[in-house]
Design brief:
Blueprint: H1 3-8, H2 13-26, H3 30-35, E1 38-46, E2 51-54, E3 59-60, E4 65-70, E5 75-80, E6 87-95, H4 97-121, E7 125-128, E8 132-135, E9 153-155, E10 158-159
Parallel strand pairs: 1-8
Antiparallel strand pairs: 1-4, 2-3, 2-5, 5-6, 6-7, 9-10
Length: 162
């Protein structure tokens, strides 16, 4: 329907302007709408079945695990498994290209309101690393016999011949 047709029906120009502003506000925050404020963050380990604990209170007893995390989170991660060295790391957030595309949509449609909503919600961010893939290192067996130097006794009446 054109502007003249709307005016014939009694719709004024200020009403049309208000309608366009309302539409802009309604669709502002494009990244927030398209990406949300949370994302799936996945941890996998080799070997599997390790436990994961994060400094923001999340935990899982057997990898692989997937958590729902806020795009803006930054946290420490501890991964442990009996017989393997404990692993410590840090996850942070950075600007996401997917959030950037939606942010560009805000510039065209949602304006300052959309930019503010997306920046405040963290929708333009992503967690890194995601996924987190860790190869655990085995702990040297504490019961392993130490290597003997050549020519030293290894048992009663025997000497090593290395």
């Amino acid at each position: 329907m054109g502007e003249q047709q709307l005016m014939k029906r009694g719709v004024s120009r200020p009403s049309i302007a208000v309608a366009f502003v309302a539409i802009g506000v309604a669709i502002s925050g494009c990244a927030t709408v398209t990406r949300g404020t949370h994302e799936a963050w996945t941890v996998s380990t080799a070997p599997p079945n390790a436990s994961v604990r994060t400094s923001n209170g999340r935990a899982c007893d057997a990898t692989p695990c997937t958590f729902t995390m806020d795009h803006r989170d930054s946290f420490d991660v501890t991964i442990s498994k009996p017989g393997y060295r404990e692993w410590h790391g840090h996850v942070t957030h950075q600007f996401s290209s997917g959030g950037g595309a939606a942010l560009a949509g805000n510039v065209l449609v949602g304006g300052l309101i959309g930019l503010t909503v997306d920046a405040a919600s963290g929708a333009t961010q992503k967690l890194v690393p995601n996924p987190l893939s860790v190869t655990l290192e085995p702990v040297a067996a504490a019961t392993a016999a130490p290597q003997s130097a050549p020519g030293t006794p290894t048992a009663v009446g025997q000497t090593s011949s290395q």
